[in-house]
Amino acid sequence: MKHIWKFVSAWPWETLLVVLLLLTIVLGNALSPYFLTPFNFSLMVEDFVEKALMALPMTFIIIAGEIDLSVASVLGLASVLVGVTWHAGMPLWLVIGIALVVGVAAGLLNGALVTRLGLPSLVVTLGTLALFRGLAFVILGDQAVSDFPGAFTNFGIGDVPGTLIPWSFVLFVLLALLFMVTLHWSWIGRQIYATGLNKEAARFAGIGVRRLKLLLFILSGLIAALAGIIFTARISSARADNAIGFELDVITVVLLGGVNIFGGRGTLVGVILSLFVIGALRNALGLADVSGDVQNIVVGTLLVLSVLGPNIVQRIQVVLSRRRLAAESSKQA
Questions:
Q1: 27-65, pLDDT tens digit by residue?
Q2: In terms of Cα–Cα distance, which of 2, 3, 20, 97 is closest to 313?
Q3: Which residue of 2, 12, 24, 129 has the lowest C-beta tally within 10 Å?
Q4: Partner residues linked to 51 by β-bridges
């Protein structure tokens, strides 16, 4: 019992997320007998893998004190470019390369406007959200490209042989491990936390704050483009309106995972737990034939709670710590 209490004390928000995940699983099982089947689990992780990928660099950016609202639009633009370049007869390796380069360019634009001109990332990425989505519609209009080769689409919908684990989920797991090591056990992670806590103090400590943030925005653009490639392969269609609204889920996942919206605090463990909470909740509601609009209301509510929740938990912790210290002092007296 003592070890359990130590875990709860060290990871209070993550513990609540575990409880919330268990409650979501119970709810899903009550709503549909198919919820706890391996096939449904495979469909669920396949459905949220693009959001999961974009949540990784978003975690870094928000911990560093910024935000990127343009990720879904970068995904859509990358998807359109995959379709257009493939339809033009380019080889698949070049198609993928062009999409990734454009993702890097989109991140570079966001980062440059934020770090070089000193503009708020909220305003910048809100503007580029419309810019990148508009470019996607200008390039492809309301048309769709769907004549992709089987080798490409199989990666989006295929499973590891002998299992029901999607290849795209394997890619997410590998990247999640890399991001987790970088954030929690490297000097880069320490610089990200220091920048989010106090960028002026970080600058005086010798951290290249502007360079660090620029690289984080570039990384976000690159991963969003990668998510666009996977999304296109999974649905076998390149459209300008692909992934509209995905940024809501991505930001909700990160904030619900315990990352402070003002920066400087949060863990990837919490974000990954939050991914499964949101993914399982959407899957359960979908199996119960709940409309997408109602699902968005639920996710929006979770977004509000994700901002309030960690602050409430932190205040409760402070109150309990003060009471414990007061009780110990009275015993010693």
A1: 999 999 999 999 999 999 999 999 999 999 999 999 999
A2: 20
A3: 2
A4: none
